[in-house]
Amino acid sequence: MNDTKHSKRSSVSRRQLLHRALALPLTLSAWSSLFKPHQTEAQVSIQTSAVSSKTLVAYFTRSGNTRVIANQLQRDLKADLFQIEPATPYPADYEANVAEAQREKESGALRPLKNQVPQWNQYERIFLGFPIWGTTAPAIIRTFLTEHDTRDKVLIPFITHGKYGLGNSLSVVREHAKHAKLLKGYSEECDQERDTMESVDKWLKKLG
Ligand SMILES: Cc1cc2nc3c(=O)[nH]c(=O)nc-3n(C[C@H](O)[C@H](O)[C@H](O)COP(=O)(O)O)c2cc1C
């Protein structure tokens, strides 16, 4: 009887031990899975949806206007989101950035990307967002289209500008994505940093 009790108790405690032993790696893996995706996102600038999406929203932004549209597309379409970033960041100073964009436009140089889109082949439809720089698409967009095969992908641009329109940006996209199915995109006039800077200058002058 005692033996049975003892063996029952020891069998329960063995089960508990086994359970704990199994739970430990599970707990560790639960913790690591909590952190891994975020580390990956930060490293490769991608935010993936719960289900594996066939739609990607890829965007470049300096001052955040284009990101507003990108975030809405991602939310509404349950798409994956990728921020296009250059390997070497553009200058934080506005005028220095304008000068650099102008140099890249004149030279036609491609600006290296920080990251490529992971699992690019999984996507069938790409929303591509960017601001107008010097009446065209920023050099980083030319690089993006050169380094990602858009053959047979549906490509839908969304573009923000600061009141001077789209310039030749759509033909730049067409030229660099010759085999994509290019759909009519979306564009919007947005606030310009330059206007804000001028208003703040006026305000500071008034303050003396
Ligand atoms: C370097 C640079 C060049 C720009 N050139 C133009 C331009 O040629 N035409 C225009 O309408 N807006 C121009 N803008 C304004 C931006 O296109 C506009 O503010 C855009 O919404 C910014 O988007 P973002 O906040 O996503 O960076 C320029 C802005 C920068 C920083």
Describe the model:
The chain has 208 residues and is an alpha/beta fold. The chain has a single domain, classed as Rossmann fold (3-Layer(aba) Sandwich). The protein is 49% helix and 15% strand. The chain contains 6 helices and 7 strands. Strands 1, 2, 3, 4, 5, 6 and 7 form a 7-stranded mixed sheet that branches. The protein is globular. The structure holds flavin mononucleotide. The site of flavin mononucleotide (FMN) has 21 residues, from helix 2, helix 3 and strand 5.
Short synopsis of the structure:
With 208 residues, this protein is of the alpha/beta class. The protein has six helices and seven strands. It has helices at 2-44, 65-77, 94-107, 139-147, 169-176, 193-207; strands spanning 46-47, 55-59, 80-83, 125-131, 154-161, 181-182, 186-189.
